[in-house]
Amino acid sequence: MITKKIALSVMSVACSFGIAAAATPVQAQASTMQATENQNMTVQGVALQVIDSKTGKLLNQNQWGYYGSPTGSIVICEGSPDFGAVVGRYYTNAGITNMTHGSHSGVNYVKVWVDSSKEQYSSSSTIPGYTFSSDYLEDL
Fold this sequence. Notes:
Elements: H1 2-16, E1 23-26, E2 39-52, E3 64-68, E4 74-77, E5 88-92, E6 96-104, E7 107-114, E8 120-122, E9 130-133
Parallel strand pairs: 2-7, 2-9
Antiparallel strand pairs: 1-6, 2-3, 3-4, 4-5, 5-8, 6-7
């Protein structure tokens, strides 16, 4: 959706100028689901910072996509698979140790701490067990 891409760009510019927004810490919950069917992942916002939880090292130079499902699955990735782009480096619930949520001008963002040993990579626009959609999921 074009309006979402514009909103994400506005958020990126706002953050570049140091516009702050309140953030709420939440504990990432590990998914107990088996990958028997694809999880429908919808865009939830952007991951502004991806941080190694053991070293504190920033792992991303650009904002990543933040996707969620109604069942609680989370994927953060450097690509935009919801628009057919390569996923690239990514983490699922199993690699996410903590995150804080915030919102600015209607755009949701997260700061994510990960176990960097659980980083995965996909050179396509798909990940086994997940499908991506640009439809926004309101109730994650």
